[in-house]
Write a structure and sequence with these properties.
heterodimer; A: 263 residues; mainly alpha; 2 domains; two-stranded antiparallel sheet; 9 helices; 4 strands; flat; B: 204 residues; Arp2/3 complex 21 kDa subunit ARPC3; 8 helices; 71% helix; 2% strand; globular; disordered N terminus; cell membrane (chain A); membrane (chain A); transmembrane (chain A); Energy-coupling factor transporter transmembrane protein EcfT (chain A); ABC/ECF_trnsptr_transmembrane (chain A)
Chain lengths: 263, 204
């Protein structure tokens, strides 16, 4: 199946994930996260990890998701190490290396936590790799999110590269003036201000210009035209209600589990 | 109130405005961008700091606690969606930082170096109190910073309660970061052109 995007006159190939709207994808991520918090069985957690990984692999695996996984792997490794050695519920030794005992309970606890983190990464990765900034903006506005909030969320994605570019220019200018790479922590802290001050002033200046431009173009006008979503999604309301309801139930159940410990 | 070059024109009634003006709407993404770039900059210099709340501080100082809270919230959402999904839950901490900075600034606690230090301690306390339960829920109490986690491991190894160990781990890291960020924000605010400060204040 294909769809013609009139705005840019090109034919885009439709995939199964294009029929799922952005909010459903986010609610699905929240639902999977809450499931992993409510059911602490390790096999169930492993099943959820596999499900969210499959979801990601059957759509598109982006470099951002791989970066997120590698970013968290070090933390997961230290968590397994610290909990395996020092977890308060440690009783049964798993193995010993040079008189240091690694315990089963801490190891399993760390594995459960790691599984939850991987589920969040994969589920959010699915959302990130299958939606675009403009698609999210149009959809959120079409379902009634205030346009100012939509602008806030989406403009960051466009402004960020601009700020990064400005920073590179300022750093290059500082180097051209003969400022050498700093070695000690004090030197490094001192080197922050000569770069950040011009960067921040320039960024705020551009914000003022953007604000004046938006005002001139009638951003605050009540008769704004709503953007039309690019895709037609499958059963959006039903999936929103269903996922929201199940997630609320899971949150309620988790809260009850916590409260019942004190009763 | 004017002291040492910093003027706080806001008052306790106007600082909680929920209506977002176009000026604030364009200031918030800039603040989020500053947070993002400052954090990357600190990581590039291998500093033992995050600096990831600098934009939130400045947004709160320029446009009030609501703008600061929204900047902090969106910053964590964007950071969570692009780099570390678990960061999304720490948006609660960022919202609190934005609110506390805005309130303290409005009450004149960013007018001189001594007051900035007291403010920074209060901000670090707020951040640690809110982050500790999140650290325990998601990371078993760790913060992910090696030397802070070494302290945490040492305390857990000595059978100290996980909540106290996690709070100490977080607070030790936060106090350093928040004090440095508070002084950088204080210094940068003093360097901003008056027309810029007035523009964001007048257009709230």
């Amino acid at each position: 199946m294909e769809i013609r995007d009139n705005s840019i006159q090109r034919i885009a190939q439709m995939h199964w994930y294009n029929f799922v709207d952005p909010v459903t994808k986010l609610l699905l991520a929240l639902f999977l996260t809450m499931l992993s918090f409510d059911f602490t069985n390790l096999y169930f957690e492993a099943g959820l990890v596999l499900f969210s990984l499959m979801l990601l692999l059957l759509s598109r695996l982006s470099s951002a998701t791989i970066n997120a996984v590698s970013f968290c792997l070090f933390l997961i490794a230290t968590m397994v190490l610290i909990q395996g050695l020092f977890y308060s519920g440690n009783i049964h030794p798993l193995f010993s290396v040079m008189r240091i005992t690694f315990y089963r309970e801490g190891f399993l606890y760390a594995l459960t936590m790691s599984a939850r983190i991987l589920i969040i990464i994969f589920a959010i990765g699915f959302f990130m790799s299958t939606t675009t900034v403009s698609e999210n903006a149009k959809y959120l506005e079409s379902i009634g999110m205030p346009y100012k909030l939509v602008y806030l969320l989406m403009s960051v994605c466009y402004i960020l590269p601009q700020i990064q570019q400005n920073m590179k220019k300022i750093q290059f200018a500082e180097r051209a003036r003969g400022i050498n790479p700093q070695k000690t922590v004090t030197q490094k802290v001192r080197s922050i201000l000569p770069i950040l001050i011009p960067l921040i002033i320039k960024t705020f200046d551009q914000s003022i210009n953007r604000s004046i431009t938006l005002q001139l173009r009638g951003f605050d006008s009540p008769s704004r035209t709503l953007a039309t979503p690019k895709y037609r999604y499958f059963q959006t309301k039903l999936s929103h209600y269903l996922l929201t309801l199940v997630t609320i139930l899971l949150i309620g159940w988790k809260l009850w589990q916590i409260i019942s410990k004190f009763l | 109130m004017k002291e040492n070059g910093i003027e706080n024109k806001g008052n306790r009634f106007s600082m909680w405005k929920l209506h977002l003006s176009v000026a604030t709407v364009t200031l918030i993404p800039a603040a989020v961008g500053i947070n993002y770039v400052a954090k990357a900059f600190a990581e590039g210099l291998k500093l033992p700091l995050w600096l990831g709340s600098l934009g939130t501080y400045l947004a709160s100082m320029l446009a009030g606690p609501t703008a600061g809270a929204i900047s902090g919230f969106i910053n964590n959402i964007i950071y969570g969606l692009t780099l570390s999904p678990v960061s999304t839950v720490y948006s609660i901490t960022s919202i609190a930082i934005g609110i506390v900075v805005g309130v303290l600034f409005n009450r004149g606690w960013f007018t001189n170096a001594k007051r900035v230090f007291v403010s920074a301690i209060l901000i670090a306390l707020t951040s640690a109190i809110i982050s500790t339960p999140l650290n325990v829920i998601f990371w078993g109490g760790q913060t992910g910073i090696p030397w802070g986690d070494a302290l945490f491991a040492g305390m857990i190894g000595n059978h100290i309660n996980i909540w106290i160990a996690s709070f100490t781990d977080e607070f030790v890291l936060d106090i350093l970061d928040k004090v440095v960020v508070a002084y950088i924000a204080f210094f940068i605010y003093r360097q901003l052109p008056q027309r810029m400060i007035n523009y964001f204040k007048d257009n709230q």
